[in-house]
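Q: What changes when magnesium ion is included in the input?
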Amino acid sequence: MATILIVDDELSMREFLSILLEKQGHSAVTAPNGREAVKILQTREIHLVISDIRMPEMGGLELLENIKRKNQFIPVLMITAFASPEDAVLAMKGGAYDYITKPFKVDEIKQVIESALTGSEGQTAQKNSPSFSGGFAGIIGESPKMIKIYELIKRIAPTHANVLINGESGTGKELVAQAIHNNSRVAGNHFVPITCNAIPETLFESELFGHVKGSFTGATANKIGLFELANDGTAFLDEIGELTPMVQTKLLRVLQEREFKRVGDTKISKINVRIISATNRKLEEEIEAKRFREDLYYRLAVVPILMPPLRERKEDIPLLVNHFLHKYAKTLGRSLQRLSTEAMEILQKYNFPGNVRELENIIERGIALSPSETIQPESLSLPLRRHDDLVARQSSSPFLSELGSEEDLYEEGLESVMTHFEKKLIELALKKADFSKMRAADLLKISFRSLRYKIQKYHIT
Ligand SMILES: Nc1ncnc2c1ncn2[C@@H]1O[C@H](COP(=O)(O)OP(=O)(O)OP(=O)(O)O)[C@@H](O)[C@H]1O
Ligand SMILES: [Mg+2]
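A: The predicted holo structure follows.
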C-alpha cells in the first residue's frame, strides 16, 4: 500500500486514476498542476508520482525536473499523448521511470504502477537513499565528447528508460551498456548480453523466452530464456540492427505487453527488464528501407546515445595508449613499456577506422613486437593502406592512386613505396608553396636543410 500523487489538470482523469488506485489498495492524492504537486511533495510522504505533461501553471516536465533536482528518489510516471512521442523522449531523458500513452489500457497502467513501486526505484523512494557509485566500467577518455557521454550515463542510468547505443565498431558500446547497468537501481541483478545475430531465427524465441520440455524436437528439458534471466535487471541486445522482421515483431509484442510465454507453455509470466540495445547500423536508414520496424525503434531508442569515433576525440589517444600499455604489460607478464615520441605522433595522425579496439590491438602487437622498452613506429604495424587513406583524405590529392593496388604495394616493398611516397609529397608541397622551399619545408614540418637534401637526393626539379 503506497501513497500516490496524481497530477493532471483534467478533473475526470484525476478521478479515474484515484478510483483505479484505491481499488488496487493504494491511497491517492491529487493536484491540478505541477506547482500544487510541489507543495504536496514538501509536506507529505509520496511513493509514486503520476503526472500529465501539458498543464497550466507548471507542466509535468518541469515538475519532474524539480523532483530530480532535489534528489527525491520518487519514481515518476508520465502520461503522454500518443501523438507526441517527443514528450516521451523528453520525459525519459529527464529521469522519468516510464511513460504511459493516452489513451491507455487499464491493465497496462496497473502493470506499470506495480513495477514502479516494487522495482528498486520504488524501494529506494521508500528508503530515500541516493545511489550513484557504479563507476564507468573502466571507460577511459576525458575529451569533451566523452564527458558528455558520462553525464548522459549518470542522468539516465537510474531511470527505467530503454537505451539505444549507436556508433561505429569498437567505440565502446558494450562498455557504455555495462556502465549504465552498474549505475542503475538494478545493478545488483543480472546484466545479460544477447548477441542478436548469433542466434538463428528459428531458435530466437526459445533462446530469449525459454521453452518447456518436449515443446519441439530437441527440447529435451525445460529451459530458462535469456529474458527471464535478465528479469529485474538489464538485457543488452547487441547488434540489434540484424534482427529479422519476424523476430522484431515478437520482441515488440513482449516490450508492449511486458509479459511473455515460454515456448510450448501456457503460463504467462510478467517481465520487468530494462533493454539496452546497440548497433553500428544507422537504424533511421534501416527504417527508411523498411528493414527495421519504426514502432520497435521508438520502444528501444527512448534515450539514444551516439558514441563518437576515436578520430573525433584524438585527445583521448595518449590516455588510452597508456591504459593499454599497462594492461598488456600485466597480461603479457612484461615490464612496462613506453611509446617513442614519433610512434605517438603517428598514432595521433592515424584515423582508426576500427576505433578503440584497433588502438588496443596495435598496442598489444607493439608490445609483443618491440625489441626494446621503447616502442618505435616500426613495431606499430599500422596498415599502410589505411595510413595512405588518411593522407589521401587530408590532402585530397589523387596521387596515391598512382601507387597502385595494395597487392602492387607489397610487390614493391615498404622501402620503395615510402620513397616514392616521400618524393610525391615533397613535390606536392613545393607546388602548394609556389616553389618556395622555405614554405614547403614548413608544410612538411621538416627543416629547410633536410628538404634541400631530399630535393637533391630525389632529383626533384
Ligand atoms: N573508452 C574506452 N576505454 C577503454 N577501453 C575501451 C574504450 N572503448 C572501447 N574500449 C575497448 O575496446 C574494445 C571494444 O569495445 P566494445 O566491445 O565496447 O566496442 P563496441 O562498440 O561494442 O564494438 P562492436 O560494434 O564491434 O561490437 C573492448 O576491448 C573495450 O574494452
Ligand atoms: Mg559490441
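Observations recorded in class: Residues 414-432 form the longest helix (19 residues).
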